[in-house]
């Protein structure tokens, strides 16, 4: 009897990409507004403690009054972050020999763009001077890392610029990341400390005036090989590469194709969360479109599913996931071999033998 055994093989499109060893840091969320169409936006409103309805009321004169408006102490925080960034934190991001930025000048460029101005009058050129001063002499060579749907793990792996440099690791973004601000016309303070708009229905570009330009500028600074961390197991079956992402809208179109500081290769790292459904892998669905766009721009393209360096980070956050439990067992055995020169099972057996020798017991194995 002849039995035709046909094995269905899945064509593997994943390639190995050489990555740096992880140095861990802790960052969990992005400050960038989403790029969803306005009609689909779900507005989350926080309860504000409003003591008075006086339009000139400034809650920053009170003690621990939390609102949805401009962050209290915005000037002091930004100037302090600027100094801390340059002299203590991120020397590995700033070019060697580069002159220190004037932190007061940087803040004033930022302030002049927003103070006394309506939020909905902002656009993609509003903060141009600020970014020019903060990032004008920076080039990120073969260390730029972009992300979409993978904020926490990309920043953990990037480790504040030690491994790779994300947008949020640059001076311009680090000065404001996590802060809230908006201007206010006809106001003595020039900032709205009570409530900043979530969306501007009459001018969508106002919502991306800062982070849209930040993403575009960061992409223009990237050179050599760049890295993009995507989520291949998005909730509700969302694509890893989406038209409404910052990477698609502002970063990919602005990668330099010519000149001394041009991009040569785009490395895609597709992650699949432990215990989550695999929506797409390298060489599938939206990633095929991404590959086409990258190659049409003249860049080399490589894609790898779940690099080992990032699996370790994912499992550190999902320690009890099914896939990670198997990895834990193998890791434990390997670690025991390092500690004791034997595997865990042999170690237990040896312990019984030693116990019997010491106490004179007879064990039959």
TrEMBL record:
Gene3D superfamilies reported in the protein's UniProt record: ADP Ribosyl Cyclase, Chain A, domain 1 (1.20.82.10), NAD(P)-binding Rossmann-like Domain (3.40.50.720)
Entries under InterPro entries matching the protein: ADP-ribosyl_cyclase
Pfam families named among the record's database cross-references: Rib_hydrolayse (PF02267)
Keyword Cytoplasm: no
Keywords of this entry: Disulfide bond, Hydrolase, NAD, Transferase
GO molecular function, one term: phosphorus-oxygen lyase activity
Claim: Disulfide bond is one of the keywords in the record: yes
GO cellular component, one term: plasma membrane
Family label: Belongs to the ADP-ribosyl cyclase family.
Protein name as catalogued: ADP-ribosyl cyclase/cyclic ADP-ribose hydrolase
């Amino acid at each position: 009897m002849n039995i035709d055994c046909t094995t269905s093989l899945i064509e593997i499109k994943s390639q190995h990409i050489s990555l740096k060893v992880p140095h861990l840091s802790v960052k969990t969320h992005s400050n960038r507004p989403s790029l969803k169409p306005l009609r689909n936006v779900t507005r989350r409103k926080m309860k504000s403690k409003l003591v008075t309805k006086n339009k000139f009321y400034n809650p920053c004169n009170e003690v621990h009054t939390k609102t949805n408006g401009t962050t209290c102490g915005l000037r002091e925080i930004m100037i302090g972050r600027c100094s801390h960034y340059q002299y203590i934190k991120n020397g590995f991001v700033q070019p060697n020999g580069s002159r220190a930025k004037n932190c007061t000048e940087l803040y004033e460029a930022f302030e002049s763009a927003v103070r006394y101005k309506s939020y909905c009058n902002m656009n993609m050129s509003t903060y141009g001077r600020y970014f020019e001063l903060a990032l004008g002499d920076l080039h990120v060579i073969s260390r730029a890392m972009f992300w979409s749907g993978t904020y926490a793990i990309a920043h953990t792996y990037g480790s504040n610029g030690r491994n790779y440099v994300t947008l949020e690791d640059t001076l311009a973004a680090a000065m404001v990341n996590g802060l809230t601000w908006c201007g206010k016309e006809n106001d003595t303070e020039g900032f709205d400390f009570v409530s900043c708009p979530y969306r501007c229905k009459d001018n969508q570009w106002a919502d991306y005036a800062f982070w849209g330009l930040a993403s575009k500028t960061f992409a223009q600074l990237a050179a050599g090989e760049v890295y993009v961390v995507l989520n291949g197991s998005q909730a509700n079956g969302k694509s890893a590469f989406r038209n409404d992402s910052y990477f698609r809208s502002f970063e990919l179109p602005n990668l330099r194709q010519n000149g001394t500081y041009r991009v040569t290769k785009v490395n895609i790292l597709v992650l699949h969360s432990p215990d989550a459904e695999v929506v797409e892998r390298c060489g599938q669905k939206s990633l095929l479109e991404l590959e086409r766009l990258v190659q049409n721009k003249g860049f080399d393209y490589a894609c790898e599913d779940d690099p080992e360096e990032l699996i370790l980070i994912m499992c550190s956050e999902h320690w009890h996931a099914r896939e990670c439990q198997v990895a834990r067992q193998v890791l434990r055995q390997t670690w025991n071999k390092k500690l004791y020169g034997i595997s865990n099972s042999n170690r237990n057996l040896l312990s019984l033998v030693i116990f019997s020798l010491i106490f004179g017991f007879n064990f039959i194995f």
